[in-house]
Protein backbone atom coordinates (compact mmCIF):
# COMPACT_ATOMS: atom_id res chain seq x y z
CA UNK A 1 0.00 0.00 0.00
CA UNK A 2 2.83 2.37 0.88
CA UNK A 3 4.42 1.55 -2.45
CA UNK A 4 1.27 2.52 -4.31
CA UNK A 5 0.96 5.76 -2.38
CA UNK A 6 4.52 6.68 -3.22
CA UNK A 7 4.16 5.97 -6.90
CA UNK A 8 4.44 9.26 -8.84
CA UNK A 9 1.16 8.89 -10.72
CA UNK A 10 1.10 12.45 -12.03
CA UNK A 11 4.61 12.15 -13.43
CA UNK A 12 3.78 8.81 -15.07
CA UNK A 13 0.64 10.17 -16.70
CA UNK A 14 2.57 13.20 -17.94
CA UNK A 15 5.35 11.02 -19.38
CA UNK A 16 2.85 8.75 -21.09
CA UNK A 17 1.06 11.74 -22.58
CA UNK A 18 4.34 13.18 -23.88
CA UNK A 19 5.33 9.81 -25.30
CA UNK A 20 1.99 9.47 -27.06
CA UNK A 21 2.30 13.00 -28.44
CA UNK A 22 5.85 12.38 -29.68
CA UNK A 23 4.82 9.10 -31.31
CA UNK A 24 1.90 10.74 -33.11
CA UNK A 25 4.01 13.68 -34.25
CA UNK A 26 6.84 11.47 -35.51
CA UNK A 27 4.37 9.38 -37.49
CA UNK A 28 2.68 12.46 -38.97
CA UNK A 29 4.19 13.16 -42.38
CA UNK A 30 3.40 15.65 -45.10
CA UNK A 31 1.76 12.93 -47.16
CA UNK A 32 -0.99 12.60 -44.54
CA UNK A 33 -2.14 16.16 -45.19
CA UNK A 34 -3.20 15.39 -48.75
CA UNK A 35 -3.65 11.61 -48.82
CA UNK A 36 -7.38 11.91 -49.60
CA UNK A 37 -7.01 14.59 -52.28
CA UNK A 38 -7.34 14.04 -56.01
CA UNK A 39 -4.45 14.25 -58.47
CA UNK A 40 -3.77 17.40 -60.44
CA UNK A 41 -4.00 17.36 -64.22
CA UNK A 42 -1.51 18.68 -66.74
CA UNK A 43 -3.88 21.43 -67.79
CA UNK A 44 -4.19 22.99 -64.34
CA UNK A 45 -0.59 22.44 -63.18
CA UNK A 46 1.18 23.57 -66.36
CA UNK A 47 1.55 27.28 -65.44
CA UNK A 48 3.17 26.65 -62.05
CA UNK A 49 6.80 25.79 -63.03
CA UNK A 50 6.78 28.64 -65.55
CA UNK A 51 5.51 31.13 -62.96
CA UNK A 52 8.15 29.96 -60.50
CA UNK A 53 10.78 30.91 -63.07
CA UNK A 54 9.17 34.33 -63.42
CA UNK A 55 9.57 34.82 -59.66
CA UNK A 56 13.23 33.79 -59.90
CA UNK A 57 13.66 36.43 -62.61
CA UNK A 58 12.81 39.15 -60.06
CA UNK A 59 16.15 38.42 -58.33
CA UNK A 60 18.15 39.24 -61.48
CA UNK A 61 19.55 42.72 -62.01
CA UNK A 62 19.72 42.34 -65.80
CA UNK A 63 17.67 39.69 -67.59
CA UNK A 64 19.73 40.14 -70.76
CA UNK A 65 22.77 38.94 -68.84
CA UNK A 66 21.35 36.62 -66.15
CA UNK A 67 23.59 35.28 -63.41
CA UNK A 68 21.42 32.62 -61.73
CA UNK A 69 19.19 31.37 -64.53
CA UNK A 70 17.80 27.82 -64.08
CA UNK A 71 18.35 25.18 -66.79
CA UNK A 72 16.53 26.39 -69.88
CA UNK A 73 16.47 29.99 -68.69
CA UNK A 74 13.64 32.03 -67.23
CA UNK A 75 11.45 31.88 -70.33
CA UNK A 76 11.09 35.67 -70.32
CA UNK A 77 11.58 37.92 -73.31
CA UNK A 78 13.37 41.06 -72.03
CA UNK A 79 11.54 43.14 -74.62
CA UNK A 80 8.18 42.20 -73.04
CA UNK A 81 9.27 43.11 -69.52
CA UNK A 82 7.20 46.23 -68.88
CA UNK A 83 8.62 47.27 -65.52
CA UNK A 84 10.82 46.13 -62.66
CA UNK A 85 10.52 47.64 -59.17
CA UNK A 86 13.24 47.36 -56.52
CA UNK A 87 13.21 48.20 -52.81
CA UNK A 88 14.22 51.77 -53.69
CA UNK A 89 11.21 52.08 -55.98
CA UNK A 90 8.73 50.64 -53.45
CA UNK A 91 10.22 52.56 -50.50
CA UNK A 92 10.09 49.32 -48.53
CA UNK A 93 6.29 49.25 -48.57
CA UNK A 94 6.22 46.12 -50.74
CA UNK A 95 8.72 43.50 -51.93
CA UNK A 96 10.32 43.97 -55.38
CA UNK A 97 8.28 42.80 -58.35
CA UNK A 98 8.14 42.73 -62.15
CA UNK A 99 5.31 43.19 -64.64
CA UNK A 100 5.62 40.93 -67.67
CA UNK A 101 3.43 40.72 -70.77
CA UNK A 102 3.42 37.06 -71.77
CA UNK A 103 2.16 37.01 -75.34
CA UNK A 104 2.87 33.31 -75.80
CA UNK A 105 0.46 32.30 -73.03
CA UNK A 106 -1.83 35.36 -73.32
CA UNK A 107 -1.15 36.43 -69.78
CA UNK A 108 -0.36 39.64 -67.90
CA UNK A 109 1.88 38.56 -65.01
CA UNK A 110 2.87 40.51 -61.91
CA UNK A 111 5.51 38.45 -60.06
CA UNK A 112 6.62 39.31 -56.50
CA UNK A 113 9.76 38.00 -54.80
CA UNK A 114 9.95 36.45 -51.34
CA UNK A 115 11.30 37.53 -47.98
CA UNK A 116 14.73 39.16 -47.94
CA UNK A 117 16.44 38.32 -44.65
CA UNK A 118 18.63 41.41 -44.96
CA UNK A 119 15.78 43.91 -45.36
CA UNK A 120 14.09 45.40 -42.31
CA UNK A 121 11.22 46.64 -44.45
CA UNK A 122 10.17 43.05 -45.21
CA UNK A 123 10.06 42.29 -41.49
CA UNK A 124 7.99 45.44 -40.96
CA UNK A 125 5.41 44.17 -43.47
CA UNK A 126 5.39 40.73 -41.88
CA UNK A 127 5.12 41.90 -38.28
CA UNK A 128 2.38 44.46 -38.96
CA UNK A 129 -0.42 42.24 -37.72
CA UNK A 130 -2.33 41.01 -34.71
CA UNK A 131 -5.06 38.42 -34.57
CA UNK A 132 -8.28 40.07 -35.62
CA UNK A 133 -6.60 43.36 -36.49
CA UNK A 134 -7.92 43.73 -40.04
CA UNK A 135 -11.31 42.78 -41.46
CA UNK A 136 -11.93 42.35 -45.17
CA UNK A 137 -14.99 41.15 -47.08
CA UNK A 138 -16.56 39.42 -44.10
CA UNK A 139 -13.34 37.79 -42.83
CA UNK A 140 -9.92 38.58 -41.41
CA UNK A 141 -6.68 39.14 -43.29
CA UNK A 142 -3.07 39.96 -42.51
CA UNK A 143 -2.88 43.73 -42.10
CA UNK A 144 0.70 44.26 -43.34
CA UNK A 145 0.23 42.12 -46.44
CA UNK A 146 -3.04 43.87 -47.29
CA UNK A 147 -1.37 47.30 -47.00
CA UNK A 148 1.48 46.14 -49.25
CA UNK A 149 -1.03 44.85 -51.82
CA UNK A 150 -2.92 48.15 -51.71
CA UNK A 151 0.29 50.05 -52.34
CA UNK A 152 1.13 47.89 -55.38
CA UNK A 153 -2.36 48.33 -56.81
CA UNK A 154 -2.25 52.11 -56.34
CA UNK A 155 1.16 52.27 -57.99
CA UNK A 156 0.36 50.06 -61.00
CA UNK A 157 -3.40 50.58 -61.37
CA UNK A 158 -3.18 52.74 -64.48
CA UNK A 159 -0.84 50.48 -66.45
CA UNK A 160 -2.78 47.35 -65.43
CA UNK A 161 -6.06 48.93 -66.53
CA UNK A 162 -4.61 49.84 -69.92
CA UNK A 163 -3.21 46.33 -70.44
CA UNK A 164 -6.48 44.67 -69.41
CA UNK A 165 -8.43 46.85 -71.85
CA UNK A 166 -5.88 46.50 -74.65
CA UNK A 167 -5.73 42.70 -74.39
CA UNK A 168 -9.28 41.60 -73.51
CA UNK A 169 -8.46 37.91 -74.04
CA UNK A 170 -5.46 37.90 -71.69
CA UNK A 171 -5.66 36.73 -68.09
CA UNK A 172 -4.30 38.83 -65.23
CA UNK A 173 -2.05 36.72 -63.00
CA UNK A 174 -0.53 37.65 -59.65
CA UNK A 175 2.19 35.30 -58.44
CA UNK A 176 4.51 35.47 -55.45
CA UNK A 177 6.73 33.38 -53.21
CA UNK A 178 6.80 33.35 -49.40
CA UNK A 179 6.16 36.96 -48.31
CA UNK A 180 5.33 37.79 -51.92
CA UNK A 181 2.72 35.03 -51.98
CA UNK A 182 0.76 36.79 -49.26
CA UNK A 183 0.96 40.10 -51.12
CA UNK A 184 -0.15 38.41 -54.36
CA UNK A 185 -3.11 36.73 -52.64
CA UNK A 186 -4.21 40.00 -51.06
CA UNK A 187 -3.75 41.76 -54.40
CA UNK A 188 -6.04 39.28 -56.15
CA UNK A 189 -8.74 39.78 -53.50
CA UNK A 190 -8.48 43.57 -53.70
CA UNK A 191 -8.72 43.51 -57.51
CA UNK A 192 -11.80 41.26 -57.40
CA UNK A 193 -13.44 43.56 -54.86
CA UNK A 194 -12.47 46.71 -56.79
CA UNK A 195 -12.79 45.51 -60.37
CA UNK A 196 -13.96 48.95 -61.50
CA UNK A 197 -10.41 50.22 -61.01
CA UNK A 198 -9.25 47.89 -63.78
CA UNK A 199 -12.04 48.55 -66.24
CA UNK A 200 -14.58 46.21 -64.57
CA UNK A 201 -12.42 43.17 -65.21
CA UNK A 202 -14.27 39.86 -65.01
CA UNK A 203 -13.48 37.70 -61.98
CA UNK A 204 -12.74 34.76 -64.27
CA UNK A 205 -9.81 36.65 -65.81
CA UNK A 206 -8.06 37.18 -62.45
CA UNK A 207 -5.73 34.44 -61.16
CA UNK A 208 -3.28 34.14 -58.31
CA UNK A 209 -0.60 31.54 -57.60
CA UNK A 210 0.82 31.68 -54.08
CA UNK A 211 4.06 29.67 -54.04
CA UNK A 212 5.01 28.46 -50.53
CA UNK A 213 2.08 30.52 -49.23
CA UNK A 214 1.90 32.50 -46.02
CA UNK A 215 -1.17 32.07 -43.84
CA UNK A 216 -2.81 35.36 -44.63
CA UNK A 217 -6.63 35.05 -44.56
CA UNK A 218 -9.38 33.51 -42.45
CA UNK A 219 -10.89 30.18 -43.42
CA UNK A 220 -14.10 31.56 -44.93
CA UNK A 221 -12.08 33.79 -47.28
CA UNK A 222 -9.59 31.04 -48.09
CA UNK A 223 -12.44 28.82 -49.31
CA UNK A 224 -14.52 31.55 -50.93
CA UNK A 225 -11.63 32.75 -53.14
CA UNK A 226 -10.54 29.24 -54.14
CA UNK A 227 -11.77 29.89 -57.68
CA UNK A 228 -9.22 32.72 -58.01
CA UNK A 229 -6.30 31.87 -55.71
CA UNK A 230 -4.12 28.75 -55.95
CA UNK A 231 -1.47 27.81 -53.37
CA UNK A 232 1.49 25.52 -54.09
CA UNK A 233 3.20 23.66 -51.22
CA UNK A 234 6.27 21.44 -51.57
CA UNK A 235 6.21 18.43 -49.20
CA UNK A 236 7.19 19.58 -45.66
CA UNK A 237 7.31 23.37 -46.15
CA UNK A 238 6.95 24.98 -42.72
CA UNK A 239 5.41 28.32 -43.74
CA UNK A 240 1.89 27.16 -44.75
CA UNK A 241 1.80 25.21 -41.48
CA UNK A 242 3.14 27.92 -39.18
CA UNK A 243 0.33 28.92 -36.85
CA UNK A 244 -0.80 32.50 -36.62
CA UNK A 245 0.13 35.18 -35.72
CA UNK A 246 2.63 35.43 -38.56
CA UNK A 247 5.27 37.18 -36.47
CA UNK A 248 6.21 33.66 -35.31
CA UNK A 249 7.67 33.11 -38.78
CA UNK A 250 10.37 35.64 -37.91
CA UNK A 251 11.27 33.67 -34.79
CA UNK A 252 11.13 30.33 -36.58
CA UNK A 253 13.74 31.42 -39.09
CA UNK A 254 16.31 31.68 -36.30
CA UNK A 255 15.06 29.19 -33.71
CA UNK A 256 13.31 26.55 -35.81
CA UNK A 257 14.07 23.27 -33.94
CA UNK A 258 12.86 24.31 -30.50
CA UNK A 259 9.98 26.35 -31.92
CA UNK A 260 8.76 23.41 -33.98
CA UNK A 261 8.46 21.24 -30.88
CA UNK A 262 6.59 23.92 -28.93
CA UNK A 263 4.30 24.66 -31.88
CA UNK A 264 3.59 20.98 -32.47
CA UNK A 265 2.71 20.41 -28.81
CA UNK A 266 0.43 23.43 -28.65
CA UNK A 267 -1.36 22.67 -31.91
CA UNK A 268 -1.74 19.00 -31.00
CA UNK A 269 -3.46 19.89 -27.73
CA UNK A 270 -5.96 22.29 -29.38
CA UNK A 271 -9.02 20.50 -30.84
CA UNK A 272 -9.43 21.08 -34.56
CA UNK A 273 -13.07 22.05 -34.09
CA UNK A 274 -12.01 24.90 -31.83
CA UNK A 275 -9.47 26.10 -34.38
CA UNK A 276 -12.05 26.04 -37.18
CA UNK A 277 -14.49 28.15 -35.18
CA UNK A 278 -11.92 30.87 -34.45
CA UNK A 279 -12.79 33.54 -37.06
CA UNK A 280 -9.44 35.29 -36.60
CA UNK A 281 -7.25 32.29 -37.33
CA UNK A 282 -5.45 32.67 -40.66
CA UNK A 283 -4.88 29.96 -43.27
CA UNK A 284 -3.09 29.32 -46.54
CA UNK A 285 -5.34 30.78 -49.26
CA UNK A 286 -7.41 29.22 -52.02
CA UNK A 287 -7.09 25.88 -53.78
CA UNK A 288 -4.07 23.89 -52.59
CA UNK A 289 -1.57 21.99 -54.72
CA UNK A 290 0.66 19.68 -52.67
CA UNK A 291 3.81 18.29 -54.29
CA UNK A 292 4.73 15.04 -52.51
CA UNK A 293 8.12 13.52 -53.27
CA UNK A 294 9.22 11.71 -50.07
CA UNK A 295 7.72 8.76 -48.23
CA UNK A 296 7.88 8.00 -44.48
CA UNK A 297 10.79 5.86 -43.28
CA UNK A 298 12.38 5.88 -46.74
CA UNK A 299 15.52 7.65 -47.89
CA UNK A 300 15.86 9.90 -50.89
CA UNK A 301 13.37 11.60 -53.19
CA UNK A 302 10.79 9.75 -55.24
CA UNK A 303 9.04 10.79 -58.46
CA UNK A 304 6.87 13.70 -57.32
CA UNK A 305 3.09 13.55 -57.46
CA UNK A 306 0.78 16.54 -57.20
CA UNK A 307 -2.47 16.36 -55.27
CA UNK A 308 -5.04 19.12 -55.22
CA UNK A 309 -8.21 20.01 -53.34
CA UNK A 310 -10.10 22.82 -51.63
CA UNK A 311 -9.97 21.43 -48.09
CA UNK A 312 -11.75 22.94 -45.11
CA UNK A 313 -10.78 20.77 -42.15
CA UNK A 314 -7.25 19.34 -42.17
CA UNK A 315 -5.90 22.33 -44.05
CA UNK A 316 -2.15 22.07 -43.22
CA UNK A 317 -2.93 22.44 -39.53
CA UNK A 318 0.18 20.82 -38.03
CA UNK A 319 3.89 21.42 -38.57
CA UNK A 320 5.79 18.39 -39.83
CA UNK A 321 8.88 17.41 -37.84
CA UNK A 322 11.27 17.18 -40.77
CA UNK A 323 14.82 18.21 -41.57
CA UNK A 324 13.48 19.44 -44.92
CA UNK A 325 10.97 21.87 -43.42
CA UNK A 326 13.06 24.89 -44.46
CA UNK A 327 14.68 23.57 -47.65
CA UNK A 328 11.25 22.76 -49.09
CA UNK A 329 10.44 26.44 -48.76
CA UNK A 330 13.12 27.53 -51.25
CA UNK A 331 11.78 28.74 -54.60
CA UNK A 332 14.64 27.00 -56.42
CA UNK A 333 13.60 23.58 -55.08
CA UNK A 334 9.92 24.27 -55.71
CA UNK A 335 10.60 25.19 -59.35
CA UNK A 336 12.76 22.11 -59.84
CA UNK A 337 10.31 19.64 -58.32
CA UNK A 338 7.31 21.27 -59.97
CA UNK A 339 8.98 20.90 -63.36
CA UNK A 340 9.81 17.26 -62.60
CA UNK A 341 6.21 16.61 -61.63
CA UNK A 342 4.95 18.28 -64.81
CA UNK A 343 7.35 16.26 -66.98
CA UNK A 344 6.08 13.04 -65.39
CA UNK A 345 2.49 14.09 -66.03
CA UNK A 346 3.30 14.76 -69.67
CA UNK A 347 4.96 11.36 -70.03
CA UNK A 348 1.88 9.60 -68.70
CA UNK A 349 -0.48 11.61 -70.87
CA UNK A 350 -1.47 10.16 -74.22
CA UNK A 351 -0.47 12.33 -77.17
CA UNK A 352 -3.25 14.76 -77.97
CA UNK A 353 -4.05 14.62 -81.64
CA UNK A 354 -6.83 17.15 -81.94
CA UNK A 355 -7.38 20.53 -80.26
CA UNK A 356 -10.96 19.45 -79.57
CA UNK A 357 -9.71 16.85 -77.09
CA UNK A 358 -7.63 19.47 -75.28
CA UNK A 359 -10.65 21.73 -75.08
CA UNK A 360 -12.79 18.89 -73.72
CA UNK A 361 -10.25 18.02 -71.00
CA UNK A 362 -9.95 21.68 -70.06
CA UNK A 363 -13.74 21.84 -69.69
CA UNK A 364 -13.72 18.69 -67.55
CA UNK A 365 -11.06 20.21 -65.27
CA UNK A 366 -13.09 23.41 -64.88
CA UNK A 367 -16.22 21.40 -64.08
CA UNK A 368 -14.38 19.34 -61.46
CA UNK A 369 -12.97 22.50 -59.89
CA UNK A 370 -16.43 24.06 -59.76
CA UNK A 371 -17.86 20.98 -58.04
CA UNK A 372 -15.03 20.88 -55.49
CA UNK A 373 -15.37 24.61 -54.90
CA UNK A 374 -19.09 24.38 -54.11
CA UNK A 375 -18.51 21.30 -51.95
CA UNK A 376 -15.87 23.21 -49.93
CA UNK A 377 -18.25 26.12 -49.41
CA UNK A 378 -20.95 23.74 -48.21
CA UNK A 379 -18.47 21.89 -45.98
CA UNK A 380 -17.43 25.17 -44.34
CA UNK A 381 -21.08 25.91 -43.62
CA UNK A 382 -21.61 22.42 -42.19
CA UNK A 383 -18.63 22.83 -39.83
CA UNK A 384 -20.02 26.18 -38.61
CA UNK A 385 -17.02 28.11 -39.85
CA UNK A 386 -17.69 31.76 -38.90
CA UNK A 387 -19.03 33.90 -41.78
CA UNK A 388 -18.99 30.91 -44.13
CA UNK A 389 -20.65 31.56 -47.48
CA UNK A 390 -23.25 29.17 -48.85
CA UNK A 391 -23.48 28.91 -52.66
CA UNK A 392 -26.90 29.60 -54.16
CA UNK A 393 -28.92 26.52 -55.00
CA UNK A 394 -29.26 25.55 -58.65
CA UNK A 395 -32.98 24.89 -58.08
CA UNK A 396 -33.80 28.17 -56.43
CA UNK A 397 -34.47 26.68 -52.97
CA UNK A 398 -33.35 28.26 -49.74
CA UNK A 399 -30.52 26.78 -47.68
CA UNK A 400 -31.14 29.01 -44.68
CA UNK A 401 -34.40 29.87 -43.02
CA UNK A 402 -33.19 33.41 -42.59
CA UNK A 403 -32.65 33.75 -46.31
CA UNK A 404 -36.14 32.44 -46.96
CA UNK A 405 -37.67 34.83 -44.44
CA UNK A 406 -35.67 37.70 -45.88
CA UNK A 407 -36.78 36.86 -49.40
CA UNK A 408 -40.35 36.41 -48.25
CA UNK A 409 -40.30 39.78 -46.52
CA UNK A 410 -38.99 41.41 -49.66
CA UNK A 411 -41.75 39.74 -51.68
CA UNK A 412 -44.42 40.84 -49.23
CA UNK A 413 -43.04 44.34 -49.26
CA UNK A 414 -43.08 44.46 -53.05
CA UNK A 415 -46.64 43.04 -53.13
CA UNK A 416 -47.77 45.60 -50.59
CA UNK A 417 -46.30 48.46 -52.56
CA UNK A 418 -48.01 47.11 -55.70
CA UNK A 419 -51.40 47.00 -53.89
CA UNK A 420 -50.97 50.52 -52.59
CA UNK A 421 -50.11 51.79 -56.09
CA UNK A 422 -53.17 49.99 -57.53
CA UNK A 423 -55.47 51.45 -54.88
CA UNK A 424 -54.16 54.97 -55.49
CA UNK A 425 -54.78 54.57 -59.21
CA UNK A 426 -58.31 53.33 -58.50
CA UNK A 427 -59.08 56.37 -56.34
CA UNK A 428 -57.84 58.77 -58.97
CA UNK A 429 -59.89 57.03 -61.66
CA UNK A 430 -63.30 56.61 -59.92
CA UNK A 431 -63.43 58.93 -56.91
CA UNK A 432 -63.45 62.68 -56.51
CA UNK A 433 -63.80 65.37 -53.83
CA UNK A 434 -66.85 67.65 -53.48
CA UNK A 435 -66.88 71.28 -52.27
CA UNK A 436 -67.07 70.08 -48.63
CA UNK A 437 -64.03 67.76 -48.98
CA UNK A 438 -66.08 64.56 -49.02
CA UNK A 439 -65.14 61.66 -51.27
CA UNK A 440 -67.73 61.03 -53.98
CA UNK A 441 -67.97 58.94 -57.13
CA UNK A 442 -67.05 60.63 -60.35
CA UNK A 443 -69.86 61.18 -62.83
CA UNK A 444 -69.22 59.17 -65.94
Automatic annotation (TrEMBL):
<feature type="domain" description="Mono-/di-acylglycerol lipase N-terminal">
    <location>
        <begin position="9"/>
        <end position="75"/>
    </location>
</feature>
<keyword id="KW-0378">Hydrolase</keyword>
<feature type="compositionally biased region" description="Polar residues">
    <location>
        <begin position="404"/>
        <end position="417"/>
    </location>
</feature>
<protein>
    <recommendedName>
        <fullName>Calmodulin-binding heat-shock protein</fullName>
    </recommendedName>
</protein>
<dbReference type="InterPro" id="IPR002921">
    <property type="entry name" value="Fungal_lipase-type"/>
</dbReference>
<dbReference type="GO" id="GO:0016042">
    <property type="term" value="P:lipid catabolic process"/>
</dbReference>
<feature type="signal peptide">
    <location>
        <begin position="1"/>
        <end position="19"/>
    </location>
</feature>
<dbReference type="GO" id="GO:0016787">
    <property type="term" value="F:hydrolase activity"/>
</dbReference>
<dbReference type="InterPro" id="IPR005592">
    <property type="entry name" value="Mono/diacylglycerol_lipase_N"/>
</dbReference>
<keyword id="KW-0732">Signal</keyword>
<feature type="domain" description="Fungal lipase-type">
    <location>
        <begin position="109"/>
        <end position="244"/>
    </location>
</feature>
<dbReference type="InterPro" id="IPR029058">
    <property type="entry name" value="AB_hydrolase_fold"/>
</dbReference>
<dbReference type="Pfam" id="PF01764">
    <property type="entry name" value="Lipase_3"/>
</dbReference>
<feature type="region of interest" description="Disordered">
    <location>
        <begin position="386"/>
        <end position="418"/>
    </location>
</feature>
<dbReference type="Pfam" id="PF03893">
    <property type="entry name" value="Lipase3_N"/>
</dbReference>
